[in-house]
Amino acid sequence: MNPLQTILILAAAFLAVFGEATLAGLRQWLSAQVDLLPALMVYAALNADIVTVSLLAVFGGLWFDALSANPPGVSILPLFVVGYVIWLQRELILRELPFAQLVLGAIASAIAPVLSVLVLLTIGQQPLLGWGSLWQWLVMTVGGAVATPVVFVLFDWSHHAFGYQPRTEPSFRPDREIRRGRL
Fold first, then answer.
1. Cα 75–79–82 angle (5° rounding)?
2. Of 15, 81, 113, 116, which residue is the least packed, with the fewest Cβ within 10 Å?
3. pLDDT at position 70, please?
């Protein structure tokens, strides 16, 4: 596992949470917040190891909870469950197809908030639930689905920009002399 990839994933999670908290234009226009952490979790689960998935769940969840009304630690378990299930099945998933990325992003973005509400209800909190929650859930699902292929493109670009690309040499060397005829 490349430690640079883990650092980039955690940095992207930090920037995503910070951007969600500070940039209010899209949130005010849609009356709902798009959560980018499930999209990052899909990428991490398909392209990284379980340590990176765990680190993203812990740090991303804590960063998200620190800037929201959630009690600290509520978002960790839903993010980890989503990442762990995808990580277990990563060999069977067509990770290079944008349609598969879109579907996985939609599923992850739909399941994570539902699990967060279940955790909140389990610990005795009373989240505000109503018909507006259905609209917010739908916006989060569609936004996460659209964001997931974008996350894959950005991380593929960063991998090519910052990663080591091994040089392959052909079997024929141009400096080799070929003798023809008798010796």
1. 145
2. 15
3. 87
- What pTM does this model have? 0.86
> Domains of the chain by range and CATH?
3-162 (1.10.1760)
Q: Which residues of 79-116 are buried (b: 16+ CB within 10 A; e: fewer)?
A: bbbbbbebbeeeeebebeeeebbbebbbbbbbbbbebb
C-alpha–C-alpha distance, residues 21 and 34, integer Å: 11
Q: For position 176, what pLDDT does the model report?
A: 67
pLDDT digits (tens, 9 = 90+) for 18-68: 998 888 887 788 888 889 999 999 999 999 999 999 999 999 999 999 988
Enter the tokens of residue 116.
């967060």
**Closest to 141 (Cα-Cα) out of 183, 82, 96, 81:** 82
How much of the chain exceeds pLDDT 90, in percent? 61
Q: CA angle 41-42-45, nearest 5°?
A: 80
Hey, which bits of 26-69 come out as E strands?
A: none
